[in-house]
């Protein structure tokens, strides 16, 4: 017979993830109380547009951190891939899609370059990507000749600024947006139910049915309220569709594929993973290739958002991506972390930045608050590990 987990036991077992979600909700409520415009349709749409590239970077960074490594070069990769795309499309007149493909190819090549040094030469990722941060930033200056290049054609611009609106009409709001989000909610509910049934089949403990249903209803309400706000503004952002696809794909890779399980195994104990037959070098190499690929996607999205490429593009993006992962529950020692947690961590950073901007907080104040939140998140992780060790 399958055991059920009480609410108290569920909270205790998922204290980090649950605490992060509660913190996210609390931050949203706080800024909504301080400034009613925070939850306005236009502002929520702007949050999606302004921080989508950080969330894309956080997906790739999570795999790197779970592996037990780090990547300090992603901001520079964002810059150099956007610069290459701008030079090809704006200055040389190539079609917009060729600029996108060239940026993706460069990102993959950079990921392979750094993955080689980390995986096959044994140089720590911190050192390799620190060198890459400097190398690719300098390359960006050379590609752009130290000047901004703009504007992109409309098709490229719409990657990060376009909307799907009016496809199904609607009385003052976009029905198509609501339908897409409703389908997503149903898909999430089905996936969660299948996971629950699989756990029951293998006689694993699951939470009580009322807790399970309450969670699904809460998620559905929050998601549909968010969807209605988007539908009341400009409709469904194209970049949000891209982000959702990436979350779905990489969530599946991390949890349901051999490669994903190998990444967690290596981050948990590299020696044991090697003894169990896992190709540690190969997995490490492809994790960095993937990071380069996702950084290139972020580079395309960011350059499209800015409608041009600048030598300073992507500055400090690596720190935002790393912070999103750690705030979202990833461990500093590797082996722990989830895509959903990284997304919540990234949203916390986005909400704090946007909320403080609406309040007129200075850039210095925003940096201080972000740094404090990151430190507290990591301290909480260390505290939980020590507590678990003392109870073992």
From TrEMBL:
UniProt source species: Schaalia canis
Keyword 4Fe-4S included in the entry's annotation: no
Transmembrane helix keyword on record: yes
Any GO molecular function: transmembrane transporter activity
Record keywords: Cell inner membrane, Cell membrane, Membrane, Sugar transport, Transmembrane, Transmembrane helix, Transport
Chain segments annotated as transmembrane: 20-39, 51-70, 76-94, 101-120, 126-145, 166-189, 209-228, 235-253, 285-304, 325-352
InterPro entries: ABC_transp_permease
Pfam families: BPD_transp_2
Entry function: Part of the binding-protein-dependent transport system for D-xylose. Probably responsible for the translocation of the substrate across the membrane.
Domain of life: Bacteria
Subcellular compartments: Cell membrane
Name this protein carries in UniProt: Xylose transport system permease protein XylH
